[in-house]
Every structure is written in structure tokens, then in C-alpha cells.
Amino acid sequence: MHKYACGSLLLLIVSLLSLAAAAADQDTAFPPDQSKLPVPPPDDAIVLFDGGDTGHFVSMKGEEINWPIKDGALVSTVRGHKNHIVSTLHFRDAHIHVEFMLPETKSGNSGVYIHGNYELQILNSHKAKKLSQHHMGAIYGFSKPLANAARPPGEWQVYDIRYRAPRRDENEKIVEKGHQPRGPIQLQDHGNPVRFRNIWLVEKKAK
Questions:
Q1: Which among 66, 83, 85, 140 could disulfide-bond with 79, CB atoms 3.0 to 4.6 Å apart, if both were Cys?
Q2: Can you spell out the DSSP letters for 145-168?
Q3: b or e along 71-104 (b: 16 or more beta carbons within 10 Å of the residue's beta carbon)?
Q4: What are the extents of the domains in the chain?
Q5: Which of 192, 29, 1, 204 is nearest to 100 (CA)?
Q6: CA pair distance 163, 96, nearest whole angstrom
Q7: d(CA 44, CA 201)
């Protein structure tokens, strides 16, 4: 994890198989300059939400979402932790950009799921001293953050994610080379009105 002066978050998510493989797959155009938010999407990006159309997301039942839009941002509903939204786009390897703002009250608990398995934790972790998998920047259930780069609630923050999908063999075992599953981005409803904006990704060719 690299910690930018602006306090935003950069997290590299890779398959659990090989950190070395991800290190060999660097892209000098990513992450983008995070010093000014929102970050304009690059020309080859697929924009999932730009402040208006919500057609790139559906509910967990595949229906139209009911998250409201306020000031150009999607706002997570508070519906018993069950009203997540899922991208209609499914992808393999990708660079993913999500900007978010925590409410100034409550814990700000939410998350960005990749392929339904890997959750980038969202939580009010500003000034937290001892970090765990519950804090901002964690891959929940797998790894705690390497540093605390969380901004205070009420300020825009960003995840720039370099995601390398796991490679699996015919028995779905993780291997160095194999087929890559496709999957969506999921934004979590966890009882807090977290705001999301400027969501885009760039699909990458497998190596």
C-alpha cells in the first residue's frame, strides 16, 4: 500500500496465489493522480456511475436499485444489511476506481466487494492506532491494512484497486495458470448512509 499525502487509499488486490505475479504486472498509468477528487476516468474506462444513470447496477434480486442519488452520489440505504447493489458488468482482471464518503455520524460501515468474495472494508478508521481487518483498507477476512490512510468522515476518499482474478483449474483449485472467473463489483448496505460516486474500471488482458 502506498500512502498519498492527501490521505486517500491505494490498495493492490491480487489473487491469493502469488503476490510476485502481481508485482510483475505493474501499469504506469495506474493508479491515477488522487490529489484532486473526483478523478476523471481514462479514455478506456467503463464508467459504472457518473452521478446520474444507475443502469449499471441492480439489486441482489436483479431488480432496479432503490439507492437514492444526492448531489451526484449514490447513497447506501439502511435496510437491515441486505440491500446491496451489484454491477451488471462482470469482468476478470481490472483496475477499479471507487470514491466514497462516510457519514459524520455512525460507524460508516460499508464495503466494496470484488467478485463477491473480496471485501475492501469501509469504516470510520480515522486516527485508529491498532489496525485490524475491521478497519479501512483491510481485505476483510484476509488481511488487515498495511497503513492507516483513512480520511475523516465527511471527506471524499478513494479506492484504486489493481485486481488480478484467481486462476483456477478444472476442479476450481487455485493454480498459477488456469481459467479466470468473471464477477461483479458489489457495494454493501451495512446500515450506514455511505455515499459513492465516480465508479469506473478498466478491464485488463490476462497475462
A1: 83
A2: -SS--PPPTTSEEEEEEEE-PPEE
A3: eebbbbbeeeeebbbbbebebbbbbbbbbbbbbe
A4: 9-22+44-167+191-203
A5: 192
A6: 7
A7: 9
Structurally, what CATH architecture does the domain formed by 9-22+44-167+191-203 represent? Sandwich (2.60)
Residue with cell 488456469: 178
Q: Which amino acid is at 192?
A: N
> Which residues, in sequence order, are CB contacts of 11 under 8 Å at separation 6+?
1, 120, 137, 139, 145, 159, 160, 161
d(Cα 105, Cα 7) in Å, to the nearest integer? 20
What are the backbone angles phi and psi of residue 153, rounded to the nearest 5°?
-55, 145
Q: Are 169 and 175 in contact (CB under 8 A)?
A: yes
pTM of the model: 0.86
